[in-house]
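To close the chapter, one final illustration. This time we ask the reader to focus less on the individual chains and more on the assembly as a whole: which components sit near each other, and how the overall shape emerges from the parts.
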Amino acid sequence: MSGEGDVPQAIRKLAPGKLVIASHNQGKVREIDALLRDHGIEAVSAGALDLPEPEETGTTFVANAELKAMQAADLSGLPSLADDSGMCVDALGGDPGIFSARWAGASKDFAAAMQLVETKLQETPGAGRTAHFVCALALAWPDGHIEWFEGRVDGTLVWPPRGDKGFGYDAMFLPDGETETFGEMDPARKHAISHRADAFRQLVAAVL
Ligand SMILES: O=c1nc[nH]c2c1ncn2[C@H]1C[C@H](O)[C@@H](COP(=O)(O)OP(=O)(O)OP(=O)(O)O)O1
Ligand SMILES: [Mg+2]
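The assembled structure is written out below.
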C-alpha cells in the first residue's frame, strides 16, 4: 500500500536510469524516453536490461500494460513503466485493438498489417474510416503497488499510407484537425497530441 502523496518524492529521488521502460518496441521506447526526458527523468529500457518479453494474455489494454510493468518490476527490482497500445477501427468493431502488434506477425511487418486493415475495410460495405489510438500506461513499483492511465486520440484512416517518421500504423492515421498523418508530422507534434501524450499528461499530473 502506498498513499498518493509519497509517490512524487519516490520517483524524484530515483537515480538516473532507475526507471525501467518495460517495452521491447524501439519506436515506443524512443517516444516514452522523449516524454520522460521532458520531465527530467532518465530511464533504461527492458531490452537494455535483457528482460524477457512477456506473453500478453490480458483482454484489455490496461491488463496487458499491468502485466508487462509488473513483470519488469519483479525481475529488475526497479519501478517500471509499461505501455500497451493499439489502433481501434470503428468499422472493424475495434480491431485490431489489443491485437495491433500481433496483426504485424512475428516479422513485425506493419506494411502488411496496414494492408490488412485496408483490405478488411474495403470488404466491409459502407464502412466509415474513423479510428482511434489507445494508450494504457501502467507504473508498477517493486512493492507491488501499481497505477495506470489511459489516453486516446481520434482520427481517420488514409490510403495509401503517408510518411515514414513514425512506427506501426502511423502512416495511415490522420489525427482529427491535422493535415499530416502521424507518419508525416514532426515527432514533436505527435508527442503533443497523441494517445501516448494524453496518457502521459495524466501520469505526470498524478505521479510527478
Ligand atoms: O503511436 C503509435 N503509432 C503507430 N502504431 C502504434 C502506436 N502505438 C501503438 N501502435 C500499434 C503498433 C504497436 O506494435 C501496437 C502496440 O502493441 P503493444 O503490445 O502495446 O506493443 P509492442 O508489442 O509493439 O511492444 P511492447 O509490448 O514490448 O511494449 O500498436
Ligand atoms: Mg507487445
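Residues 86 and 99 are 7 Å apart (CA to CA). The radius of gyration is 17 Å. With these observations in hand, you are ready for the problems at the end of the chapter.
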